[in-house]
Amino acid sequence: MVAKDSIFALKPNGKSPPFAPKRKKKRDGKEILALLRNLGRISGDFDAAWVVDCLSSESKNIRLWSAKTLGKLESPEYLDILRQTARLDPSSEVRREAVSAIGRMRSPLAIGVLGEALKDEDPKIVCQAIRGLLVFKSDPRVRKSLVSLARHENEMVKEIIQKEYAAPSAAVPKQPHPASDDDLKNVVVLGDVLRVLEHVPEESFHLTFTSPPYYNARDYSVYSSYQAYLGFLEKVFQSVHQKTKEGRFLILNTSPVIVPRISRQHSSRRYPIPFDIHPLLVKMGWDFIDDIVWAKPESSVKNRNAGFLQHRKPLGYKPNPRTEYLMVYRKRTEKLIDWNIRQYDWRTIKDSKVADGYETSNVWEIDPTHDRVHSAVFPAALCRRVVEYYSYKGDLLFDPFGGSGTFGRTAKSLDRYFFLTEKNESYFDYMQSFLRKGLPFSERETRFLSLKEFAARKKGHGKT
Length: 464
Prior knowledge:
- The protein is 40% helix and 14% strand.
- With 464 residues, the protein is an alpha/beta fold.
- The N and C termini lie far apart (61 Å).
């Protein structure tokens, strides 16, 4: 093991001469790697000749940490050797680190070398070179080289160039990010969601969580074709995108659905709804963030295994589907999550912190809930996690397919506001019945409105 005093001896203020691997043959690769990993901060008068020698080591990790160490010096003195490493090293990771070290020099002498790296086949190396060149983005030659990358085939490269050179200036929001219109708070509207959203201002919702109707698998969700079904959802989530505040989330609970066969002479049909919706969402401006698997007990789902249990013949196997997906998306923005968090005051951030015992994996074991009126309801435990993990107190939460209203009740119980739409009158009436039972809806007045009543509400929107 390498002692700390051996490492300190390498520092500019140390009294011992610089360590040279060739002269210290007793030191093996592990010791050299330990030295490189633990050098920490070094200054310009550090004798790095031995580090340069290490760039030719057979060990990828030693070459990687040698490039990192030379990058700390930020000196054009090492430009040629790093250029050679960036071009010829067999490891893409080492080449990427060499390009990073060249960029850290912030020297005009490095422009040409970084320009060469823009042609690399590894998009991560190209992105690293772009990062180094952005220091000189006002240079006409650099600008020309970078702007040309807007036609690059890699999406990461194009996104960086779009952000730096083509991103439109963001419109000034009409209200502070945490705020929402008073006439949208704790409201349930009876009507088609697309027509309702026509009367909702842009950038109103902080979070949308919903489970779309199952395609032709329930009486309340009959569509002329699967493409018509997907087209309807595309319109809904395009409108939700417009009504969502910058950088906030859409969480979609979906699963493949089976449309039963009409007779024994025909096959049932299984539709991969989450996988077909995904490309539509990305195209319209939602960035995919996470996939969460909601796992139910096998005893709670329909058994598809009965036939196979008897004959055990290959090709006839059908697993019992006990999972659904929570697909997490964020409205595309150039701003990081930290920006969204900073929009809230200290008290709101503190009061909204998630308590200990939160779920750490993307597999959520939650029992389903059964309801006498609605055949596919959200479990309150599922809603609670979504509300706590993806919103702050005082936020406005939306469910375009309100159903029995579980999401709204959960939002209210956690000091959030809700806005629900529901076109099925029986479900709308069912939600109203909670007012008479004294459940969370009654803690703050909830308004149940027809589409006509909602559209005719006062023109001026109150603000928090």
